[in-house]
Design the sequence.
């Protein structure tokens, strides 16, 4: 039953964390409106579309993660009560896959994309390119910030799942 509490606590923490994507997304969209209303220079006007797109993407990411975890939270107890071993195995498999995704996407691909954007920024002088690269860098920094914290939570949860699996094996061996 302790692992059910850990799973629930993890999902609740995710429900607190994922709205930050939405918050940053709304901030980017408000910045887009600000550039649209008050932008006088070519560079300021060039920010309108990239900040709007980044804002929409961050908002969609945040809402998708929020509703996915909200749904998952309601299913934990049913799945655990149906078959605790299968619940731990499926959660362990999902946590493993998530940790691999973090390694490949968040901590490898995103920094590489950020480096590419920074290089483009050094060599391209057009306002649209500059605005797009700076906005992309800012959006990816937000993703790294929020997902970096989420990575710590899923890693701790993964360790708790491994401990629960070991305890279940020990209990089975005792019988």
Sequence:
């Amino acid at each position: 039953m302790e692992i059910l509490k850990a799973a629930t606590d993890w999902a609740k923490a995710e429900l607190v964390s994922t709205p930050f994507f939405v918050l940053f997304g709304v901030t980017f969209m408000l910045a887009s409106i600000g550039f649209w209303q008050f932008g006088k220079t070519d560079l300021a006007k060039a920010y309108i579309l990239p900040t709007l797109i980044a804002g929409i993407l961050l908002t969609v990411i945040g809402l998708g993660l929020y509703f996915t975890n909200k749904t998952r939270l309601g299913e934990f107890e049913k799945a655990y009560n149906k078959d605790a071993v299968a619940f731990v195995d499926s959660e362990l498999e999902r946590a493993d896959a998530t940790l691999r995704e973090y390694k490949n996407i968040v901590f490898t691909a995103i920094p590489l994309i950020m480096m590419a954007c920074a290089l483009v920024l050094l060599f391209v002088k057009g306002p649209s390119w500059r605005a797009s690269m700076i906005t992309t860098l800012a959006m990816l920094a937000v993703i790294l910030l929020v997902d970096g914290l989420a990575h710590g939570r899923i890693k701790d949860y993964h360790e708790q799942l491994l401990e629960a699996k070991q305890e279940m094996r020990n209990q089975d061996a005792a019988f």
Notes: Residues 40 and 161 are 55 Å apart (CA to CA). The mean pLDDT is 94. DSSP finds six helices and no strands in the chain.
